[in-house]
Amino acid sequence: MTIKDKASNSDWTIIFICWIVASVSTLGSLFFSEIMELAPCALCWYQRVFMFPLVIILLLGLFPFDKSIIKYALPLAIAGWGFAFYHYLLYSGFIPESIQPCSQGVSCSETYLDLFGFLTIPMLSLISFSIIIGLLLILRRRLSK
Amino acid sequence: MKKQHIVLISSFFLILVFVLGVYLYKSYHTKKLGFLALENASIFVREYSQTLGSDDAKVYLIKFSDPACETCSAFHPFVKQLMAANPGKIKLVIRYAPFHDGADYFVKILEASKKQGKYWETLDVMYKTQRYWASHHNPKPQLIWRFLPRAGLDLEKIRKDMNNPEIVGIINQDLADAKTLNVRKTPGFFVNGKPLSSFGYKQLKELVDTEISKYY
User: Which residues of A fall within a CB distance of 8 Å from B4?
Assistant: First the structure.
């Protein structure tokens, strides 16, 4: 195997990991909503809107490996991260409830799930989007060299 | 290993974990409810709860419902059929989970009809005429009064009785029990404390049949 092959293999692996993160997040959010029947609030929906398509487009970028996937996936991930960050601030009380956007239906700031005492659903979402963005940025750097 | 295989195997593995999670969660949930049913039966049936069917019935069918919910209305005749097919074996318990906006109003009317001994007649009329007053895009709660005389109700008395604060207490208790039992959608069915593992007419019939075959 040449050095170039090895490098392109790790590039592929980076996208593959992004895809795994997106898939786990998608299945996880479906588990929360469909199995545990926790109704997704408005902010959750915006994050889903940006997470679900990542599963499909990242997969397409893997076969054959296509570096322009960064161009398509990164904006989605950043938009999703924005909503996740806002949701996280709302959840943890940095933004007062009075200015939250969703008053009807499901509350965006009510805590439904608390894994191990500190992991909440918005935090999981924020972590997923951060990993995906981080990996895509690393890949962009490697490829621009 | 080929890249295609890596992705295929990962997909398979992720889906497997998901399915396993569903299975584990459901069995945990059923177990927890079974325990609740043994330890604290009043969570399923409160003293004030409206029931239908013989007191000797061994199969308790608990329905968390909302007078303004379309699926509850769709299930109503089906539940009646189930009861007719198994005379004396099923006891239906109505609990309230008025999740629709303003649905409390209809529960109050329904509870007030109890005083006139017309509870089931009123429920029938409500479900039959629901589409006129509880449409999602254009709810007209006041329109219900036009249909209520069909149940043979004294409307003046209903208007007075529906403001009884006891009814608010009933709704709050039912909502609290619904929360404990993880009912987030209506109708929420329990048969002898067991929840429907998946929602549908067939699944409800199967669950009822299983319980009947256990006791009869």
Answer: 63
